Amino acid sequence: MANMHEVDFEILGDDMQFVKVELDPGEAVVGEAGAMMYIEDGIQMQTIFGDGSQQQQGFMGALLGAGKRLLTGESLFMTVFQNQAQGKKKAAFAAPYPGKIVAMHLAEMGGEILAQKDSFLCAAKGVALGIAFTKRFGAGLFGGEGFILQRLQGDGWAFVHAGGTLEERTLAAGEVLRVDTGCIVAMQPTVDYDIQMAGGIKTMFFGGEGMFFATLRGPGKVWLQSLPFSRLASRIYAAAPQTGGGGREQGSILGGLGNLLDGDGR
């Protein structure tokens, strides 16, 4: 893409990481809402409608980009951080909760990555953010978090966040991996994605896991996270004192049945 910005960056920290992007004069980075940590003097912020990748398409192009982001549950707007100073300036973007930031150079991965809808952090201006519906009906009906994936396209740097510990795996052609849908961070589009039932009735209702899991079939790379935000939020909510009707006072078995379908009954 002609308007792609090639940026230098550094990822700092251990469990609570942030990425520091160095911008040459005129370069810009697009950030998810609420991800900015700090910007140096000379970097100007501009809120845009859509994903900012193809502003030359006019209002209808921006409206289409915004509509795609709305379908993934994200804000209609994004923020562009552009260096309008004479020298190099830096902008930093922080992870929303403990985990690892993954730097992906899209040109080295075939120009496209499919990511969990809440994992995107920031990218060099010119990276297009869209949506990718799963190909199979079962995945759309039962996929939960994995139903709609974000499609990152371009040839520049994109940064995504993985909760907890990150594992990067390369699946051979035909190799199958069964994963909790919330534990998927990203994958190459060559990886086939489907949803299957967890097993028998006893496994589904008393195994402590969700009724469905994702089946990934190679070839291609997949990035997995050990701590999906939904699981973290569920644990925090379960541990919080509850008053009135609901919460832990309902009992460990009956209180957990409502979480079985979404994979959070842990």
UniProtKB/TrEMBL annotation:
Q: Which Gene3D superfamilies match?
A: Mitochondrial biogenesis AIM24 (3.60.160.10)
A Pfam family assignment: AIM24
The family database entries (InterPro entries) matched by this protein are listed as:
AIM24, AIM24_sf, Trp_RNA-bd_attenuator-like_dom
PANTHER family assigned: ALTERED INHERITANCE OF MITOCHONDRIA PROTEIN 24, MITOCHONDRIAL, TRYPTOPHAN RNA-BINDING ATTENUATOR PROTEIN-LIKE PROTEIN
Q: What is this protein called?
A: TIGR00266 family protein
